[in-house]
Amino acid sequence: MFSRIYQKHFKRKVFNKLILIYTVITIASLVTLAVFAYQSVARDEINNSVLDQQRHVDQMNRFLNQKVENAQVLLQQLYQDNTLIGDAVYFLENGYESYIRYRLDQFSGSMSTYQRDFDSFYTNAFYRDSDIKNIILFSNPLTFAYMYTDNGRNNKLYDWENGHASEAFLRDRYRDGVVKLPSEANGTDQHAIGLGDPEQRYSYGNQLVTVTNRIYNSTTLTTVGTISVDFSTAGLGSLVEDNSRGARYAVLNDEGKFVYHTSNWKLDSFNKQAKDILHLHQNQPERIKLEQDGWTYVTVSKINKLGLTVIAMLPQKGATAHLTTLRNTIGIVSLVCTVGVLLLTILAMSRLSKRTQSIVHAMKQVQEGNLDNPIMVKEDSEDELGLIAKQFNRMCEDLNLYINRVYKSELKQKQAELVALQAQIKPHFLYNTLEVIRMRAVAKGAHDVGEMIYNLALLFRHMIKDKAMISLNEEIENCKRYLELTRLRYRDKLQYTIQVEEGLLGYPIMKLSIQPIIENYLIHGLGLDRADNHIAIEAAKTKDALVITVTDNGQGIEPQRLAALQQELLESDLKDEGSLGLKNVLNRLKILYGEEAQLTINSTVDVGTTVTLTFPLI
User: Structure pTM?
Assistant: First the structure.
C-alpha cells in the first residue's frame, strides 16, 4: 500500500516530497519544542517538590530534636530542685504509700504553709509543651509505673503483671493510637520483627514519640528508675499538612513500627520494597521505581537525636499531576500551529508547482523535437523559476539557430576531414616502409640498425592497438623490445633481468603499465658514464593480487623530491606532464581496477629506485 501511495503521489512529484519533508520537519520541530517546554516546566515542578520534601524532612527532624531537648530540660529542672529530685528518688525506691507518708512527715515538720512536690511540677510541664501526652515514672526496684495524663489532671499507679506491663497501662498510655498487646499475639508482636530479620515487615504502631531518661540516687549513684515523656505526633502532621501532590511521610522506630505516618501511607507497598528503601543514601533524595507509584523520589533521614527513621515519598506523577491543563494547552497550540503552517505551505507550494509544471511541459516538448513552444513567463518575474524559464526560452532559440545554421554545416565539414585523415594515415604503409628500411640496413651489413628498426616497428604496432587490456606476456615482450632498443643505442651499457612466476604470463593486465616506469628510469636514472646500469622486472602472485616490482640501480631520487612525488600520487587529480608518467599509470589503474590498485615508489640516492605495481586479481 505504501509503495502504491509513493508511486502515485511522491515519486515524480517533487513538491509533494517537499510538502511531506516540510510537514515532517514542522511536526518534529513543534513536537520537540512542546516536549522540551513541558519537560522544562515539569522538571522545575519536580525540583521544587523535591526541595519541599527535603524541607519537610528537615522540619520533622527538628521537631523530634526539639522534643528531645524539651525532655532534657524537664530532667534538668528536676535535678536543679533538691526537693523535687529527692521526692522522685524516694518515690521510686519506696513506693507510692511510703512516699505519701514521707510527704506528710515533711509537711508537718516544715514551718511553710506551701511546699512543692513533683506532682505539681509534672502538671506544669504539660502546659509548657502542648505535645506532651504522658509523663511516666518507672521504678526499677519495685516494678511499678506512675503515669500523668490529661495535662496532669489524671494520675494513676500501675503494677507490673509477671514482669510485664499490665493491659490497663498499655491501653491508657496508647489510648489514641493503635497498639498490639502481648496477649493478642501470644507474647509476640508479629508485625514488629527486628530490623536485622530477613523477613522484616513493618506495621502501624504507637502514634507517640517517647524520650526516656534515667533517674539516679545522688547518694548511692544507682539507677532507681526512669522518666519517659510521650509526645504526640500531631505536631508532625501540621508540618506536612500540604499534601496536594501525593507526598507521603512516616517516622519509623527500630522495632519496625511507624510512630507517625500520613493518612495516605501504603503499608503493603512499603513492605515489599522496605529493604531497598531503607538502604538508600541518607538525607539525599533518590529516584527509584515503586510497584504501585512508578518512579518516586524517596528521602530517608536519620539525623534526629532519637535515632528514628524519617521517610518521605513523592511520586513523580503526583508532582506533575497539576500540569495536565498545561500539557493539553501546549498540545492544542502545537496542533493549531502545525495545521496553519501546513496550509500556508500547501498554498505557496501549489503556485510554485504550477510554474514548475509549465517548465517540465516545455522540456518534454523539446525532448520530442519541438523547439517552438516557449514557456509563458511574466516580465517582472525575477525569482529562480522565472530566471530558469527565461534562460530556457533563450536556449531553445539559440539551439534552433545552431541546428539550422551551424551544426549541420560543421557536421559535414568534420565528416570530410575525417575521410581525408583516414586516407592519409595507413598503418600498413608505415609498417611496410620501416620493413624496407630494415632490409636495406641488413643488406648493407648494419645488422644492429636492422634490429633496432625491427623492434621499433613492433613497438609501434603494439602501442597503436586499441585494446586497454593485454596479457602479462605481451607487456613483458614489449618491455624487452624497448630495453633492447636502449641497450643497442648505448652500446651495451645497460643490462636487464626479468623474472615472472610460472602461470602468470597469460594474466590480463593494463597495456603500457610497466613500460612508462622503465622510461622514467632511462630518462632520469641511467648513468651514461657507467657500464653497470641494471634494471630488474619481477612478477609474483600474492593471496589476492598480482605484484610487479621494477628495481634499478640508478641515481635515485632526492628525499624532498621523493616526498613531493609520493604526495602527488596520493592526490586524486593525477595530471600528466608530457609523457606516460607514473601519475598517468596510476590514473589508468584506478579507472580500470578501482581503489584497490596501487602504485608505490621508494628510492635512495646513489642506490636506486623501486616501483611496485599492485593489480587486484580479477
Answer: 0.51
